[in-house]
Amino acid sequence: MCGIVGYIGKRQAAPVILDGLERLEYRGYDSAGIAVQHEGAIQVAKATGRLEALYHLTRGGTTLLGTSGIGHTRWATHGVPNDVNAHPHTNEHGTIAVVQNGIIENYIALRERLKSKGYTFVSETDTEVVAHLLDYYYQGDARKAIIQVLQHIEGSYALGIQFADQPEAIFGVRKGCPLIIGLGDGETFMASDVTAVLKHTRRVMYPGELEIAELGTEGVQLFTTDEEPVTREVSEVAWDISAAEKGGYEHFMLKEMMEQPKVVRDTLSPHIRDGRIEIEELKISDEDLARVNRVFFVACGSAYHTGVTAKYIFESLARLRVETDLASEFIYRDPLLDKDDLVVVISQSGETADTKEALKMAREAGCRVLAIVNVVGSSIAREADFVMYTMAGPEIAVATTKAYSAQLIDLYLLAMKFASARGYLHGRKLKSMMEDLAKLPEQIELMLNSREKIQRIANRFIAARDVFFIGRGIDYAISLEGSLKLKEISYIHSEAYAAGELKHGTIALLEEGSLVAAVSTQPSLHAKLLSNIKEVKARGAVVLGVTTMGNREIEQESDFCVTLPETNPLFANSLAIIPLQMLAYYIAVGRGCDVDKPRNLAKSVTVE
Ligand code: G6P
């Protein structure tokens, strides 16, 4: 989704802003623009397409003079991607510039009102109303004008604002969308996330909802819509800039897949103490945990798939009632929630609009909310009652891999914690599960090291039209994620089916040569899956089996087979997903796709 970068300091602003925007590219965008203040005027440059076009237009930013400015990468919502709709938007005289991430929901009514006052609009965007509204209220006091505008606009947004006649300041404000402030030495930044400023500073501040940030060369002042000053603590970001760079890999996605052993280890280790699981962040006593009536897992995309996995694990291990929901469904289905329910929201970015809304709804219903989040200081992390962080570091590729793997680990730990508190997990069983958990990083490494084999298989299916993923139980959850990875980066049509459902319709789609990836990691379900494999083979499908080592029948029945090291079946997702991520990756590379930035997709989906 849209990305915002703002800079005020002593350096030429445009190259710094362009560099920041480049680091936000992963969020997904289709046009970009920049506004810079110089000698009492604002200069704007915009270009459709990739940032290179904007680089080219401004010679890397050097043609735009001035030491303060705002920039934007736009992921189109209102109006097609073109130069006119690209941000920044300005008032008619070009003296006020605005960039926005989010949606101004009442923009149509505002536009009509402004038109009746003589304002003319050039773009189809919702953002342009903000520029004209600012113009309407601006009498030389930027703070007052911004406050008045905030009283009229509705929706979720983050705004970056600049005035031609205010050389000493740029402004930012957020409501429901992310915006962080970076504090440098004689320079100050704002950005949609920390990766855009990490190169310059690790000192960041997270403004609260509707707190207006006035950035100057010497720092930032925050104030409320009543013009009351606000103090926010300055945090030191632990992430290293190198973590947000490719480090010699061809794609971020490959780099991030290869980081999974480390990420899993880092996510596990803070929670293992003297052979026991400690989740300090979850400030609920074991007695209280045992009294939790139901757990809801609510998330979007791949995070939702970890929630599907968790349902199987929690029910089987902790004998607890579980519901897993897509956040976008949960918030509109009027779920029955009560105060003994625990709602677990799972999100890499911590900014996904639907997941945030689910969190809010759960809290309003009196439930306790635990967030499993990767981005420190994100909205979800701030609004939940408890936060368990995934230690994945910055994830840049749009298609998640390492954050997904880290989420699984937090969910395993949580399931085991619940199971112990409820008296279902102790002694030898607990010990053996702890041992299996500890082996996961090495086993994932082993799977990653066999990537050449996967690449060879992938090369055979570069021209595939449809690919089906089948599995039962946890293997169904794995199939959902395997299928999503493939379709999102290779654009090959792909579906995941609970293997037992095949006969109820999907099998009609199979043709001679269709690829079916059959996942079979659950010993109690091997025989059932074997029958499904036979059924699809009888219809001409080519089968890629993904199964545990020593499962001879599946190996023999499959045309290609990837075997996984032995682990507790409840942890199988962590191993089985690796070859499926690799399969998607190598097929996408073979098809010449833009692996890290697939078309139409955004990393952080901040609108519903
Ligand atoms: C987008 C991303 C996915 C992610 C989903 C949920 O679709 O491309 O990788 O799983 O959003 O995002 P979240 O940040 O809430 O995990």
What do you see in this structure?
Strands 3-2-4-1-10-9-11-15 form an eight-stranded antiparallel sheet, covered by helices on one side. The protein has 608 residues and is α/β, with parallel strands linked by helices. It has 19 helices and 27 strands. Helix 9 (301-318) packs antiparallel against helix 16 and helix 14 (427-449) packs parallel to helix 19 (572-590). The mean pLDDT is 94. It has three domains: 3-244, Aminohydrolase, N-terminal nucleophile (Ntn) domain (Glutamine Phosphoribosylpyrophosphate, subunit 1, domain 1); 246-443, Rossmann fold (3-Layer(aba) Sandwich), CATH 3.40.50; 450-594, 3-Layer(aba) Sandwich (Rossmann fold), CATH 3.40.50.10490. The longest helix has 23 residues, at 427-449. Helix content is 36%, strand content 24%. A hairpin with a 2-residue loop joins strand 16 (272-273) and strand 17. The structure holds 6-O-phosphono-alpha-D-glucopyranose (G6P). 6-O-phosphono-alpha-D-glucopyranose binds at residues 300-303, 347-349, 352, 355, 398-400, 601, 603-605.
User: What helical percentage do the residues reach?
Assistant: 25-40%
**Which strands sit side by side, in order, in the main sheet?**
3-2-4-1-10-9-11-15
Number of strands: 27
Give the N-to-C terminal Cα separation: 12 Å
CATH level-four homologous superfamily name of the largest domain: Aminohydrolase, N-terminal nucleophile (Ntn) domain
Hetero groups in this structure are: 6-O-phosphono-alpha-D-glucopyranose
| Number of structural units classed as domains | 3
User: Roughly how many Å is the radius of gyration?
Assistant: 25 Å
* Unreliable stretches covering 5 or more consecutive residues: none
Please count the helical segments.
Answer: 19
Structural class: alpha/beta
Mean pLDDT: 94
CATH level-3 fold name of the largest domain = Glutamine Phosphoribosylpyrophosphate, subunit 1, domain 1
User: Biggest sheet, in brief?
Assistant: 8 strands, antiparallel
Query: How much strand?
Result: 15-25%
